[in-house]
Amino acid sequence: MSETAAIRHLDLRRKEPPVPSAELVYDVFWWGDLPIGAKASARGELPLGVGQLRALAADLLARQLAGREPALGAPLVAGSEGQPHRALSLQSAATMDHLEERLEELTSLPPCDASDIALIICTRDRPRALERCLASLPRQVSEPGQFIVVDNSASGSARALCANYGGIDYVHEPAPGLSRARNAGIRAARRPVLAFTDDDVEPHPAWLSEVSRAFRQHDVECVTGLVLPATLGTKAQRNFQFALGAFGNSFVPLLFDERFFAETRPHGAHVWRIGAGANMAFRRSAFDRAGLFDERLGAGASGCSEDSEFWYRLLALGGSCLYEPRAVVLHHHRSEWQELKSQVRVYMRGHVSALVAQHDAFGDRGNLRRIGLQLPKYFVRTGLGSLLHGRWTRLSLMTAEIRGWLAGLTYLARPGWRRRRGEWQKL
Amino acid sequence: MGYQLLEVELSRPLEPVRLAPDQGGCGIIARWQGRLAGFQMIQLPLGATLSSAQLRDLADREFAAKVLELRLEAALPEPQPPAERPSLSIAICTRNRAARLGRLLHSLQVADPDPSFRSVEVVVVDNGSSDDTRGTVASFADARYVHEPRAGLNFGRNAALRTATGDLLAYLDDDVVVDRKWLGGLARAWRSRPDAGGFTGLALPYRLSTEAQVLFEQRGGFGRGFSRIEFRSESYANPLFPVGAGSVGAGCNMAFDRQLLLDLGGFDEALDTGAPLPGGGDLDIFYRVLRSGRPMIYEPDYAVYHEHREGMAELKRQYWSWGLGLMAFLAKSGRTDRALAQRHRAMVRWWFADQLRSLLRALRRGDLTAASFGLAELRGGLMGVWGEYDRSQARVAAIRASAA
User: Fold this and answer.
1) I want to staple A144 with a disulfide (CB 3.0 to 4.6 A). Which of A20, A117, B49, B189 is the partner?
2) 3-state DSSP call for residue B48?
3) Average pLDDT in the A238-251 region?
4) Structure confidence by residue, pLDDT tens digits, A64-102
5) Which residue in A has a C-alpha nearest to residue B74's C-alpha?
6) A152-179 per-position pLDDT tens digit
7) Do B228 and A51 touch (CB under 8 A)?
8) Chain centroid to CA A203: how far?
9) pLDDT for residue B129 is more than 50
10) If you measure CA to CA, which chain B residue comes closest to A45?
């Protein structure tokens, strides 16, 4: 694993910028203001060269057109593991005119008003991260109509910082748990759209504008977006990004609808592919219909997956979600190896607990199948593959995942924790 | 039982395909406005017809995305090549295959010319033929005949290197014919990266008339896909790279900056020696070019059609030679390139584990043919690990001595 890493944001319409003196460079490719792809390169692979960038641009732009042009079948519907179902036909690919103009139309869109949005950030005793996050928000090209910070610390430690910034609706929720904090934010929100991000995130300037645009263009109850790494300076951050796949890295919009839910339901429904809590937004009607975040789940409780469990409920009740990678946030991954290992363990524990909760609420046995069959299979396959390739760090992360899975199994045996069919937290 | 091999131009209406009574499927080479866009094989009942609806379905699934990409690529500005156009030498090393050589020379004669090259010459290296190879060459006005009596493909390649004059030197095996846009493909690759050390291209099947030819193609053939790829001295995605540079291309269709080959000391004559060690030579030269710091470009339009082995025994021998060639190469470069010795060892470990895994998978499926191919490749690999490179060096030294 390399010593230092740099991230470049590279507009493929322009010349390649200078190569930073890093062992690893993570390039995020843009076409104007449209993010279209990413690639990690070792030092010896750089600079990329004009021919390679041209081939890359053609490939990535074709994916954008196929994923964004209604005439070519967009938006694509997600299938197993969030892989898109193909909609393109030879006929449409061969005959669509004015490709360049259509591409041009996909970029340089005017900002979209975001005054319909209540922005909710939950934080807990991380003043440095919160300050960095708050400092980045004035760069938003479209301001939210309401800005709520939910302080989940026992002592209300973020109050002074929020007072400094002004225009913030400060909410103190001393009972620990990210779901509780988010639910407090929902209760305090006074706008028809609720956008969530975390304190370890710096949103891209166009984030709220693009969230707002997605809700105007699509009749969905939830919009999620692309989560890119803010830095990859440590081994922990690189492993989270590359070995574990971070928060997904599709650059093409995907629709998660009743078809996706029906197809993946036998395997526990692959709702974790929908997005990440660090970049999600809902119409208020979603909470009216499907209730609140499950306070047994999430950071500070069982670990995580309170977001994906809510998506599960939303889909099970007939809703749909759109993943729109135009809405970009930059996430600061955990920088210390021990932090990452414990995060991985807690994520897996949270994932298993959410599967138990989903099973109990809707009686879908697919959730149990995932716990009892697919996750162990994944452990065996990843374990053998890591041994074969000598990927010891991956193996070490997997032991953390297995410990998390074992801890997650205990939720099956907690009668007081489990709920009956159709029982969840209402608004 | 063979397959029908056909070409489909996607910009024209798709016609149904009627199989002959002894054909059990078809291999479809798809083009978009002349450019290669994909290759797919479909198994069908003997003598069946592939309807245009079925063909359309296949095209939607497999070729449509590529068509969109090719159209977009055409809209993007092409990089400006250097003002100085390169000259090109085409080298064909052959031994006792006059008929196939004639077929290849003919395909070069009728291929589309390309203005990117200042001049093009063809050099045929006769590696000790006893048939009418000399006469065949003489019947093509533009081809130059060179005799290399020392048996061994890499002896032949080095003879071509000594006599060729072009800035670029393109090697073709005698069991291929070139696509009509072969020159244009090589020119495209060169224009996209004029400082590249080498270029490789697509190798499609020439025919799929026998079971062995169909099987070879079904098992992946020489296919490296329909997208341009740039190879460098390392790869973040593949930590073992450039060890195992087999992904770069195939020796039957490769070109180099001739001066670079000379600087590198040419091909290793103890690899690709013909019968005793018929492989590893291409891996070795790709590896050395990349280690010299120069990129290599894979370009699908730089395409040939390769006559695959006709019989099952020959095909099995080919897999054996792949295992042997790879391991002989690894044995050599693990020794000569100490800086990457760890990657070489890891590659050997990974390869044997991977071969065993696919062997077990074949056995579990009850696929005895695949298992026998896997065993042959493993057998070759073991032979390569156990000193074949050293034995080959001794043999080559003896050949040099007796020729001198």
Assistant:
1) A117
2) coil
3) 90
4) 999 999 999 999 999 999 999 999 999 999 999 999 999
5) A58
6) 999 999 999 999 988 999 999 999 999 9
7) yes
8) 12
9) yes
10) B232
Q: How high is the pLDDT of residue B244?
A: 74
Comparing CB atoms, the residue among B64, B70, B79 nearest residue A89 is: B64
Which tokens go with B111? 């291929």
Alpha-carbon Rg for chain A in angstroms: 21
Answer yes or no: do B73 and A55 touch at CB < 8 A: yes
Interatomic CA distance for residues B293 and B288, integer angstroms: 9
Residue A283: phi, psi to the nearest 5? -75, 145
Residue A1 has pLDDT above 50, yes or no: no
Instruction: Dump pLDDT digits (tens) for A212-242.
Output: 999 999 999 999 999 999 999 999 999 999 9
- Are residues A309 and A263 in contact, defined by beta-carbon separation less than 8 angstroms? no
3-state secondary structure of B237: coil
Which secondary-structure segment (H or E) carries B335?
helix B312-336
Contact B228 A52 (CB under 8 A): yes
Interface predicted TM-score (ipTM): 0.94
Q: How far apart are CA B272 and CA B154, in angstroms?
A: 6
- What is the predicted pLDDT for the residue at A323? 98
Among residues of chain B, what percentage have pLDDT more than 70? 100
Give the pLDDT band (50/70/90) at residue A16. confident
Question: Chain A residues contacting B, CB < 8 Å?
Answer: 24, 40-45, 48-52, 54-55, 57-59, 61-63, 65-66, 72, 86, 88-94, 96, 99-100, 103, 388-390
Per-residue confidence band for A2, with pLDDT thresholds at 50, 70 and 90: very low
Determine the residue of chain A that is closest to B30 in CA distance.
A90
Q: How many residues does chain A have?
A: 427
pLDDT of residue B245: 64
- The residue among B9, B236, B287 with the most chain A CBs within 10 A of its CB, best to mutate, is B236
Q: What is the pLDDT of residue A415?
A: 86
List CB contacts of A2: < 8 A, sequence separation 6 or more.
A22, A23, A24, A42, A43, A238
Query: Contacts of residue B225 in chain A, CB cutoff 8 Å?
Result: none
